[in-house]
């Protein structure tokens, strides 16, 4: 277990500094979008710009770390929102996280588009992000199919990829027209995931209560 | 009617030349993606590069015209594919049009991302494209809801926006990982649009035949 204890001394200090820089970049982009300058980020932490590059050698390294954090924060936000209607609540929370943080959403869309070029530094990051997310959501959907919350008449992976596509696509629509109520559209989509009536699949807790045991 | 006759003389020649350039740009980008140079496009038509700018003042003007054509060609392709299962056939054809023309798909994703910036020259083009498409697909879905092909338990506009989001989102997933079978995922999605059994909505031609009259 000794390997897992928190780093101490200069090593700890270095991890803390990296975290400060990442947090500052996250906030700067949240406020100003991609236009946020490295100088602004360095100023927020009180370091020089060359010090930044010690932790994040290129601007892309820093931007991808910010996107990684966005994923983590967004997921935590979605999970925290799950109450009586887990699928709906978390989908709606995801869209809300998008619309509440337009600077971060814009960064995501821009880098994701650039990353489709195999020579882009972000290419591998996004390829892994998508395959990881697809696997994770597929597993979640399989679980929901077993409990009867989600229709089992379609392959879980297809439903998972559709769900991810809806989130990405609605994000784009919203950025082109912020008057679109993408939370409401996402709600419609989650209802399309429910087992069709008469499919003999409705055994889930979201449906009529089954006698215990 | 005289106003609608085809232009003649120098005016006609100018329209033809514009069309040649647009077609050459479409093909060059289809082959080489965004890396296609203006010089290459000019060479294909046999004009000088300055002559290009007479018809398309900026590179963006030309690229947006190519995207507009991609929409037209893609839609024609989707409509032509409609046979017994109109929704499924056209959705699958749309994804196929994407995967058959990666250079054009990449251009679309990149410009669409850049256009989320209100100061981008493509901003208005995309805003209008999305609102126009949303209106068009909504109308189509309303029709399908009336004939019972599409579920009427959700607002047509939500279903339309979901459909557009799925197409955009799957396109992105495919560009990050070309092994994903997005045509199959799109098929799953179209089945989610079907009226749930027992909704009392199944009166469409896709279902049991109704007595004529």
What does this structure look like?
Chain A contains nine helices and no strands. The first copy, chain A, has 213 residues and is mostly helical. Chain A folds into two domains: 47 residues, Homeodomain-like (Arc Repressor Mutant, subunit A); 130 residues, Tetracycline Repressor, domain 2 (Orthogonal Bundle), CATH 1.10.357.10. Chain A is elongated and about 65 Å long. At the A-B interface, helix 6, helix 7, helix 8 and helix 9 of A face helix 6, helix 7, helix 8 and helix 9 of B. Chains A, B: It comes from Streptomyces paludis. Chains A, B: Keywords: DNA-binding, Repressor, Transcription, Transcription regulation.
Q: Estimate the helix proportion of chain A, in percent.
A: 55-70%
SSE run of chain A: HHHHHHHHH
- Overall structural domain count of chain A: 2
Rg of chain A, rounded, reads 20 Å
CATH topology of the largest domain in chain A: Tetracycline Repressor, domain 2
Largest interface: A-B, 48 and 48 residues
Assembly level: homodimer
Coarse shape of chain A: elongated
Distance between the termini of chain A: 42 Å
Low-pLDDT sequence parts of chain A = 203-213
How much β-strand is present in the residues of chain A? under 5%
Topology:
The structure is a homodimer of 213-residue chains.
Chain A: H1 9-32, H2 38-45, H3 49-55, H4 59-81, H5 86-100, H6 102-114, H7 123-147, H8 156-176, H9 182-192
Helix pairs in contact in A: 1-2, 1-4, 1-6, 4-5, 4-6, 5-8, 5-9, 6-8, 7-8, 8-9
Keywords:
213 residues; 0% strand; homodimer; 2 domains; 69% helix; Arc Repressor Mutant, subunit A; mainly alpha; Tetracycline Repressor, domain 2
């Amino acid at each position: 277990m000794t390997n897992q204890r928190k780093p101490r001394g200069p090593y700890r200090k270095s991890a803390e500094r990296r975290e400060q820089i990442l947090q500052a970049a996250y906030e700067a982009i949240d406020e100003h979008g991609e236009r946020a300058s490295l100088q602004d980020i360095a100023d927020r932490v009180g370091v020089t710009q060359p010090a930044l590059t010690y932790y994040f050698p290129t601007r892309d390294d820093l931007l991808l770390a910010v996107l990684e954090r966005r994923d983590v924060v967004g997921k935590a936000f979605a999970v925290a929102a799950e109450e009586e209607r887990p699928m709906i609540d978390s989908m709606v929370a995801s869209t809300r996280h998008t619309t509440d943080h337009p600077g971060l959403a814009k960064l995501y869309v821009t880098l994701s588009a650039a990353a489709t070029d195999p020579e882009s530094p972000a290419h591998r990051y996004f390829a892994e992000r998508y395959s990881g997310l697809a696997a994770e959501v597929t597993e979640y959907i399989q679980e929901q199919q077993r409990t009867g919350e989600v229709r089992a008449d379609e392959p879980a992976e297809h439903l998972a990829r559709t769900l991810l596509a809806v989130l990405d696509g609605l994000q784009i629509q919203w950025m082109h027209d912020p008057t679109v109520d993408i939370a409401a559209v996402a709600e419609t989509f989650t209802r399309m995931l429910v087992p069709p009536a008469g499919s003999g699949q409705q055994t889930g807790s979201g449906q009529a209560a089954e006698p215990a045991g």
